[in-house]
Amino acid sequence: MFRVLVVCMGNICRSPTAEGVLRAHVERAGLGKEVEIDSAGTHAYHVGEPPDPRSRKVAAERGYELGKLRARRVATADFLRFDLILAMDRDNLAALRDACPEEERHRLGLLLDFARHTENDEVPDPYYGGPAGFERVLDMIEDACEGLLDDIRKRI
């Protein structure tokens, strides 16, 4: 089993979107039994809450289901459990590095490191913006998840 954890700050916008998109890609590729996907936040602001309604709406319009997901905070055990832990931006990557045992830091990276058509290396937080920001974030995440799926295929 190959395990991927995607991480943002509160686990209600970017990382649950990435979890839903990556899960859909993995399922369509027939790898659902070989790949586990989860999401978490570096902060506990929204623990137990569903993804932001704007994230759910934009994702649903493209066929991704996020409604059953619930926010959680990154746990110490995650650094051993997951093979890849991918942050949405450098601030959250830095928070992960601070919390991660030094010998496990090779598991950490940025989700957009796998993007092929997105020039940014960080997924911006759409929380305080309008609907266009959520669309843009989903575009970036879809691009990165396509590249990530190709990488996962090589690893399993």
Structural commentary:
It is a single chain. This protein has 156 residues and is of the alpha/beta class. The protein has a single domain, classed as 3-Layer(aba) Sandwich (Rossmann fold). The chain is 40% helix and 13% strand. The chain is built from five helices and four strands. A four-stranded parallel beta sheet has the order 2-1-3-4, with helices on both faces. Helix 1 (14-28) packs across helix 5 (131-155) and helix 2 packs across helix 5. It is globular.
Record keyword descriptors for this entry.
single chain, 156 residues, alpha/beta, Rossmann fold, 5 helices
SSE diagram, text form:
Blueprint: E1 2-8, H1 14-28, E2 35-41, H2 53-61, H3 78-81, E3 84-87, H4 90-99, E4 108-110, H5 131-155
Parallel strand pairs: 1-2, 1-3, 3-4
Tally of extended strands?
A: 4
By CATH, the superfamily comes out as: Response regulator
Total count of helical runs of at least 4 residues: 5
CATH class: Alpha Beta
From the N-terminal CA to the C-terminal CA, the straight-line distance is 8 Å
> Could you please say which CATH topology applies here?
Rossmann fold
Structural class: alpha/beta
Strand order of the largest sheet: 2-1-3-4
How would you characterize the largest beta sheet?
A: 4 strands, parallel
Tell me the CATH architecture.
Answer: 3-Layer(aba) Sandwich
Question: What number of domains?
Answer: 1
H-E order: EHEHHEHEH
How much is the radius of gyration in Å? Answer: 14 Å
Measured as a percent range, the helix fraction is 40-55%
Please state the overall shape, judged from the principal axes of the Cα atoms.
Answer: globular
Low-confidence stretches: none
